[in-house]
Amino acid sequence: MSLGSHINELRRKHQALSLEVEQAARRPAFDDLHLSRMKKQKLQIKQEISRLERT
Fold it and tell me: What is the mean pLDDT of the chain?
């Protein structure tokens, strides 16, 4: 897998998580711990994208 395609895949994952976080935040009975974990994963993906783009 080339670097560009890897970055694109990470961007797709980040976008999918963004949508999932948005939808989960709208549900009053959604587990706050799970929401927090999704946000953390989203941040980690964003940091990985930034790191790879610098190389």
Answer: 95
